[in-house]
Amino acid sequence: MAHHSDVLIVGAGIFGTSTAYHLSRSSNASVVVVDRTAFPPEHAASTDINKIVREDYSTRFYMDLATEAMEAWQSWPELAGKGFFHRTGWVAMREHGDDLASRIRKNFRDRGSDPTSTLGIDELRRKFGGLLQYTDLDGFEDAYLNPEAGWCDAGLATAELMKAATERGVSYVQGDVSQLVLGNDNRVAGVQLRNGERLTADKILLATGAWTSSLLPTVEDELGIEESGRMEQQVTAAGVCVAHYLMHPTELHLLKDMPVVIYGENGDAQPPPPRNNLSKLTNANSFTNTVTTSGGHKISVPPERDQRLVPEKLKAETIEIMSKRLFPQLTSRPVNYWRLCWDAVSPSQDHLICRHPDNRLANLYFAVGGSFHSYKFLPIIGKYVTNVLNGTSNGAEKDEHWAWKRTAFKGRGAHEKAYPHRELRDLEDRPKAQL
Predict the structure, then answer these.
(1) Contact in structure between 404 and 356 (CB atoms under 8 Å)
(2) What is the rounded average pLDDT for all residues in the chain?
(3) Using CA atoms, how far apart are residues 173 and 101, in angstroms rounded to an integer?
(4) What pLDDT does residue 185 have?
(5) DSSP one-letter code for 288
């Protein structure tokens, strides 16, 4: 049995949730959202204990977009009224020879409002209640503090916006999408679920994050789409390793002044949310998981296993980089739990918000490419996706940034450290040889 709607959104992460929210406010269209678990979906990168919210970007385009989002975090009743955003500030450490901080701070100055200040190494050790007094700062020049940044309670905020959308008529279907289904006219008719159910729609939006490439090969093969025109050339699935440490209640007063900490190119640490007391450390050295499709094409996909199953080699690397060096005071305790967090990363770390360029797939749209920096845009990004679905321009600059790219990207990306340069298989545990 097929269920038909005007718009079918596949994926309930930040892109899917935000689009459903904005469609529910601006359109009378029938909208269905499908994901494999109840919202917020357990596997999505956006379903997390916390995510960073900040304006600090080396490109003015994303800085200005983040400013718009920050205003929403602090003013919308669904968000500000629930206290999801915590303005703790962030401190970003600058390694010798790295120009990222200077490019970010220049953008603040150029816009006419710079909230940042420089922290020398000695001052960095003294601030925040001595939080960083034991941190290995070898190779770091200094740091800068932005008191206006912070973090948000990610999973709860995403669920709140989806709840608002469903209360205004959006339908949420729990189901695991197995494949796209082509209609008789080569347009995408809808999606097939693993339970045999089919969902059809006039317009299909893939907000499927790291799983996007895995949904396209069958259709791309059937239509004979060349390698250069395939989804994997636009975004690829990348993963990062995350460690969660449970802080004892007696330690929380020591962390009351903790900002988000950016440990150079290594990764970041975020304050423990009061509801779970878990401090999260992310190893930013990302990786792909490349497989060969039945059609002979190479794509990266998240492995089909529990995200909490992390190779011992990767655990050891993360502890070495993010625990022993950043917070050596944590190394005497066990990690509460591990996670491999997956997102879709584009070569420029731009989003991909557009219609498929092949006219045979004219009703297939994308809102992907979070590139590990997009959670902060939850309140606003759906407004721009809705415009694309309606055939309305978002303006020349946004249209260009979020368009389907036909040439290889050259230049500086929006979040360069997120782009993967290694394979998960090289980090997997090797079976010991039998003697």
Answers:
(1) yes
(2) 95
(3) 43
(4) 81
(5) B
Bridge partners of 193, per DSSP, are 177
Closest to 81 (Cα-Cα) out of 21, 143, 145, 161: 161
Q: Hey, is 318 helix, strand or coil?
A: helix
In this structure, the number of other CB atoms found within 10 A of the CB of residue 276 comes to 15
DSSP 247: P
Local confidence band at 47 (pLDDT 50, 70, 90 cut-offs): confident
Residue 372 near residue 418, CB atoms below 8 Å: yes
Confidence at residue 2, expressed as pLDDT on a 0 to 100 scale:
63
Measured on CA atoms in the order 229, 209, 148, 264, is the torsion positive or negative? Answer: negative
236-244 average pLDDT score: 98
CA distance 306 to 304: 7
- What integer pLDDT is reported at residue 3 of this predicted model? 86
Q: Tell me the C-alpha distance between 208 and 16, whole Å.
A: 8
Residues in CB range of 307: below 8 A, 6 or more apart: 43, 339, 340, 341, 342
H or E, element range at 33 = strand 31-35
- pTM of the predicted structure, to 2 decimals: 0.96
Q: How far apart are CA 370 and CA 417, in angstroms?
A: 13
DSSP-derived 3-state class of residue 130 = helix
Q: Can you list the positions of beta strands (E) in 161-197?
A: 171-174, 177-182, 188-193
User: Is the CB of residue 426 less than 8 Å from the CB of residue 289?
Assistant: no
- Please report the sign of the dihedral spanned by the C-alpha atoms of residue 118, residue 280, residue 426, residue 324: positive
Cα distance between residue 187 and residue 247, in whole Å:
52
Quote the CA–CA distance of 252 and 107 in Å, as a whole number.
Answer: 35
pLDDT of 139 higher than 80: yes
Q: What is the dihedral of CA 216, 220, 223, 229, to 10 degrees?
A: 120
Q: Pick from 26, 14, 31, 16: which is nearest to 166 by CA?
A: 31
